[in-house]
Predict the 3D structure of the following.
Amino acid sequence: MADTITNTPTEPHGPKPKKAMSRANIFLYGTLIMVSLYYLLPLYVMIVTSLKGMPEIRMGNVFGPPMEITFEPWVKAWSEACTGINCDGLSRGFGNSVRILIPSVLLSIAIASINGYALSNWKFRGSETFFTILIIGAFIPYQTMLYPIVIMLREIGLMGSIGGLVLVHTVFGMPILTLLFRNYFASIPEELFKAARVDGAGFWQIYFQIMMPMALPIFVVAIILQVTGIWNDFLFGVIYTKPATYPMTVQLNNIVNSVQGVKEYNVNMAATLLTGLVPLVIYFASGKLFVRGIAAGAVKG
Amino acid sequence: MTVASDPPGDSAKRPRRLFKNWMAKLASLPMILTALVVFVGGTAWTVTYSFTGSRMLPKTKWVGFDQYERLWNTDRWIISIKNLAIYGCLSMILTLVIGFSLAACLDRKIRFESAFRTIFLYPFALSFVVTGLVWQWILNPEFGLQSVVRGWGWESFTFNPLNDPNTVIYGLLIAGLWQGTGLIMCIMLAGLRGIDEDIWKAARVDGIGVVKTYVMVIIPMMRPVFITALVLIASGIIKLYDLVVAQTGGGPGLSSEVPAKYVIEYMFRAQNLGQGFAASTMMLCSVVIILIPWAYLEFGGRKRG
């Protein structure tokens, strides 16, 4: 009796939440699982196809699991697949992509973090104007800037080289990364900066000793953003490099879409999966940070 | 985007000195050069040279609007524009609808939310080249989806979008949606999380159904999120290039050509620079047309004075 009195009388009113929810929930989970299957299907098909032999692919079912698992397509994709006359597989593209990726990521993040720091703590006349132009520039279709950049790279002798492509990635990564760092540095309490100024610290000292250590999480976000973005780039790779320095995505496309020879679908899928592996590993390893990175990249850019 | 500017009085108080803050200026030099030389300079250069008869090399032989006239008389460009219009409209609507629906499902306090989110978002980590090649394989008429369904006993089943000029664009759409909806879902989910719990309580008290609450109350409240998503989708659509190259190569025939591909083919393959410049200027124009209303909506109301 005492219990019923302490409970508020309004509680039993209305539909019972549990019963009403369960019907809706079946529908909800059903939908989500169906949609998940659509999203997972290509990954599954890639893995399964790359582990089959060609005879099995010709007979059968793309969705079926391999009857006999073979890693030969992987080996072939990595070291023997042909693009035109070169038959040294995707390993060359992988090497190029790594050699493009590391300097591009380091350079673009170094420049953008310093830009962001200068923009939030050392404003000068016109700094906001340049920044606004930079952000508007992020919306300009790359096609309008492709050819002038060809001319510029030719002038400084970097056309077709990995160095040239690194420069292009640095330039086009700058708007979004600068925004990312600028907003982050702007959120750091100004008193900290002022105190350092009073103690006589200069531009670089404050950057390296105070700002950079505080911004480590945003550096990680920027690295994730840049690694996936640069690894997945196709357009700049195809235009600013030559066959010997093609990044992995370009080489992959040339291998799979080449018109000569018999199509080896298992090798193609192994090559595709190999190319997708780097961003996938980063995605699954970084979890929430990846979401934060793309949300920053997407919403702001 | 929070482009907060200083109060204008701050710098006017002191006499302007070029060397005040010189280290910051020096450190910002890469940004200034990128903004002025590459973005402004490069764009202006391309627009200027679109009025020349440049072929293999850029030259200043002015031809007025000839390149544009030729552009709009070229079938390939018209096909490209039509394709982009179909792809763009469908992709915009479907991405928003699917993205929002998935986000709404995930927002119903379900279990395994992060697992579902991980699954919906992982395609976004993959490149368009990988996306295009996988879907090219799944949609392969001989060994892919079509042959599997036929193998189940439905002998007349036909699903071969990539080899039919009339449907190839839908084949691209399937792949494009697979790659891009996860991102929009994430943005929508973040938007839904920002909505006050009390709205739901109020809706329940008033006896309004869940779907009706979403349509009548939540979606109008999320207008800024939708606008951001829309801008994002639109700027992605105009850039559509890698996916087409990887999945269809523009074929069969010219039936899946897109403007970005047209520009690159004319600039770097056909050695008809003037056409490429004119086409890219048209792309720039379309971006400006999309961007100005957005910038107006986003920043117009907040301007001082």
In short: The domain at 70-302 of chain B is CATH 1.10.3720.10 (MetI-like fold).
